[in-house]
Design a protein that fits this description.
The protein is mainly α.
């Protein structure tokens, strides 16, 4: 809505990736004779003051997801469920990358300030996957 089409494209790609992760987890659960259940999803804010705030929010969310995955690994470990631990480690590694990517964007946006935000927008719009 604010004209940052590159950032919007980046977020759309990110969203599609996260949906893929949800499907992977559901498929794994079915293989293990568990029933996937989607509960209510927290309401996402509908507006921010500027793009930095958007990506700061995304960074906090990635940290939250990392914590949840870590907790699942811990439960699997306590249950001596090696298969699930192995499955979850891919997400542990993924979260390290996710947090680093978003932190990098936040850092760049903070350093660039308003004068270079359109350049960063264009760069984010180049994301392929």
């Amino acid at each position: 809505r604010e004209g940052f089409s590159g950032m919007a494209r980046w977020m759309q790609k990110q969203s599609a990736e996260e949906i893929g992760h949800a499907y992977a987890i559901a498929e794994y659960m079915i293989k293990r004779e568990a029933t996937p259940k989607v509960d209510k999803v927290d309401v996402v804010p509908q507006g921010w003051g500027n793009p930095v705030e958007v990506f700061e929010h995304a960074l906090e969310h990635e940290k939250h997801v990392s914590k949840l995955i870590d907790e699942l690994v811990q439960v699997a470990s306590e249950e001596k469920d090696n298969a699930t631990q192995n499955f979850l480690w891919q997400f542990v590694r993924e979260q390290v990358e996710e947090e680093a990517n978003v932190l990098n964007i936040v850092s760049r946006l903070r350093k660039a300030g308003d004068s270079a935000i359109l350049f960063i927008d264009a760069k984010l719009g180049e994301r392929e996957s």
